[in-house]
């Protein structure tokens, strides 16, 4: 007779109790550096390879679903796997622990930036950080382009997206909708224009050694997930509606709730895509922050664990810190950061709990995948615009706008050129493209150069 440990009534059939899973998700959250690719790799190593909670095939099925959702796919993948293992509670714990370390780190960094950003040596660190970010965003443009722009039609979509947001200031949500509809309708007639290359969910090899079988989730679990989705919708929308009714639409907290709620449902393509939209609104429309603040925020987000989209928390903090009303600035900033993270990530739980029970049906919908292929191409154009925005505001102290009818082009003021910044960006490009140095080390090196230059009064 086998003497192996039998699951207790509280332990699921796969033998992994919720307490053990919580510790593992906490470990993953603390080690989720390197953007979505690095974060997904950490999850795969811990969940599939080391602990065999789920099979390779099930992991890829879950990843396929998360890739077609707006929002950070790595955080949603953690939520999805947590839900598979332990239902709604498991999904909530996995998703929260994936975000929590980054939230706390970014809150401290945003507060330090607001208080000490003008101190000379700190300003020097941030100066170097800003210059390094340009090379990192350019690398992201090339990486996204190689992955998505596989046909002439997709390259045209990317070019149209770039010109629409750069020259006509078309809002990002309209670009996403337009590209999606184009792919949806044209893809049925010209499917070769929108190749469906994706993760191979059927090539995962043996699946019998996973603790959780590849069977479909039972109906009761699916029903509980749908109820959880309704709760998430209420938790997301009720605070935003309350802010509108109580504070009015001119209040910074209401504006943050509305802006980042809209961003949460159009963030196809990850953080670099939504940053173009957020920069357009936070810098251009609301004037909460300046272009340099956006660049610093992205650099800081690259150094913290968790999704790169945590950069919006930095924006939310500074927006409220700069317009605190009757509140102490730090308190207002902390509330703005918390509100931003709330309306950014609660929809992520909603999308997982709402769609996970039907993941196979949605994954096999070819029309949806054609539309999302076109959206991915449009995202490449939006990220290119972000690279141009960052490069101009890093290399020049002032950037004007040239208008001709509906067309507006950014034009640098050449007398404000910053040679030191250009030199650091060029050095960062060598580290990134030639020497293949990791992001954290590139940022650290450039920040150190910036601090050193500040000692000699070079800016």
Number of domains: 1
The total count of helices amounts to: 17
Report the principal-axis shape.
Answer: globular
Low-pLDDT sequence parts: 1-9, 198-208
List the helices and strands in order. Answer: HHHHHHHHHHHHHHHEEHH
Q: How confident overall, as mean pLDDT?
A: 83
What is the count of β-strands?
2
What would you report as the Rg, rounded to the nearest angstrom? 23 Å
Structural class: mainly alpha
The fraction of residues in strands falls at under 5%
Report on the biggest sheet.
2 strands, antiparallel
| Head-to-tail CA distance between termini | 75 Å
Helix content: over 70%
- Strand sequence of the main sheet, in spatial order? 1-2
Which keywords apply here?
mainly alpha; two-stranded antiparallel sheet; 459 residues; 17 helices; disordered N terminus
Report on this structure.
- The chain is mostly helical.
- It has one domain (20-196, 219-455).
- The chain has helices at 18-30, 35-50, 56-67, 73-116, 120-148, 152-167, 172-189, 219-247, 252-264, 271-285, 291-302, 311-322, 329-355, 359-363, 366-395, 419-434, 439-455; strands spanning 399-404, 407-412.
- A hairpin with a 2-residue loop joins strand 1 (399-404) and strand 2.
- Helix 2 (35-50) crosses helix 4, helix 6 crosses helix 15 and helix 10 packs across helix 15.
- The longest helix has 44 residues, at 73-116.
